[in-house]
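ok so i was messing around last nite and threw this chain in just to see what happens. nothing serious, just curious
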Amino acid sequence: MECGERGRNLHAKNEVPRGKPREKGAEFHGPRVHLIAMNPTLVALRCGLLLAGFGLASVLGAATARPPNVVVILSDDQGYADISFNPRHPQEVATPHLDALAREGVFFSQGYITGNVCSPTRAGLLTGRYQQRAGVYTAGEGGSGMALSEKIFPRFLKPAGYTSAAFGKWHLGVNLEQSPIARGFDEWYGFLGRGGHDYFDLAGNDADNGPIYRNGAPIKDQGYLTTRLADEAVAFIRRQKAQPFFVYLAFNAVHAPAQAPAEDIERIRRQFPDLPAARVTLMAMLRHLDLGVGRVVETLKQEGVWENTLVFFLTDNGGSRAMSADNTPLRGFKQQNYEGGIRTPFIVAWPGGFKGGRTIATPVSSLDILPTALEAARVVPPTDRPLDGRSLLPLLTGRTDRHVGTFYWSEGASGGWAVRSGDWKLVAQRGQTKSELFDLARDPAETKDLAASEPAKVAELTALYDAWIEQMADPLHGGSKRMGASPDGGAKKSKDAKRKARDEERAKQKAEK
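result:
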């Protein structure tokens, strides 16, 4: 059934078809997709309301009387192969609840985040715009907090009647003026600070641990932090099930410190006696992350809202070498712009909105999460500050297999950068004297640098990056936004500014205590 011509695509020049067939073992299992057969509900969705600003027919129409709930679950430093849905996972990895979510939903085998460390990715995800537009290039800049004028997820959904809650790691500000409550969330349970938090000290007994907050007030809690975050998310869903809600559940698992209940560590040690101790602890932490995801999904089902809940799962950057993560078959780790640092397990589910049980190979980004939620919620996206992401619903409902064709990464003057256009990717990694070119269709593990044999392609991608970086803001902490550049002492200025900002933040934290 057709409903007329598809709206003109304003970004057609950046679109590419789904990638070429990948090497064996480079992708997750699951059927390839082109255009899916539409069930009656999806046919109705396809003929729905045209939303200005998206340039395509909304998938909603008469789908439901109320917009879907939205749940974004973010893990921390999880390896690409540290999910057992990946057929290349090591034998010790077991994530049955994540696997079940992937089977019920859609798995994007080329899902990217916009930063190779924690905070920048979170800034991009919550604004739907490259974080560099807000001057965020590094974890230090993002961790200090963006300007309050930067509108984030809950403020977009509030006019549509959503109640929003944030649980877990924030890493977008170290004081209450930058907290989730200050930025539009109705409820908050979690912590501020610079990324990590002790998993057992939830009462602030150690002065080096920042407090756990509830709605802006420090509290003394107890338990294992991963479990407590799931507890809070489950309780919120049960309280808010009668009206549209948005849950941002940002687990700090499996980020350092390496801590897990002793009984879980011992069980895994007995099961895998030859496994290194660090990997044993990581698997124990991963088990609790998986259990938390399973509890959230089960609660949605028990409360009768699963069919009308749009769920996203991804991690904030590639797996951490320091925590013994496994990113097979990808190259690199967290803090690198190789695929192992920026490609993530990426799952989207909405049982009442589109067919699950599929794997889609089209490259997508964490920037696409906000526009997808806005289209599902029937919220017109902003026109004064356009989003960089694009709704995934046309892909998910089978109306197209095309999406944004170009993706960018940048760490400013002190780090590297990368650009992917089509199947080609150019990487300028920190500490290296030349950029590297890879054909991801034939070489997803980035083993063969083609820069010397493809100078025209290097020039083409460099020009794309140069044009993009010119549009981005200067770094919040000063200095140049270009790698290696330090006009007027920019690099030194950046370091001095960062040191000064850290000192000011520590002073504020002590004053608050």
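not much to say yet. The chain has two domains: 12-404, 408-512.
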